[in-house]
Amino acid sequence: MTDRTTAAADKLGAKKSTNPIPQSNPSVISSEGAIGKPFNPDGAIGKIGEKIGGPLSKEGAIGSQFDASKDGIAGHVERAVNGPRNPSGSSRTQ
After folding, report:
1. What is the pLDDT of residues 14-68, one digit of tens each?
2. What dihedral do alpha carbons 35, 48, 58, 33 form, nearest 10°?
3. What is the pTM of this model?
4. CB-side neighbour CA atoms (13 Å) of 5
5. What is the C-alpha separation between 92 and 94, in angstroms, rounded?
6. How many Cβ atoms from other residues are within 10 Å of residue 93's Cβ?
């Protein structure tokens, strides 16, 4: 993703009243929220990709997009909702 995408996600995340500390007030779509949590590698949906492996594993071309700690699609959503694995304004680059 581009630096502009990251900056936009950071700007949105900074305005959220959610808390990046897990279990403290996570957004429902963050990696600790009701919708986002199943997509983690150890979640109900994420486990399927890990079991299949290849491009669907957490290190694969598709699966890595769902890793909230990275700068793929899920990582930018995580920043936009100020989630725990990639809080807005964090300088993580992986």
Report:
1. 777 666 565 577 788 888 888 988 988 889 999 999 999 999 998 999 999 988 8
2. 10
3. 0.69
4. 10
5. 6
6. 8
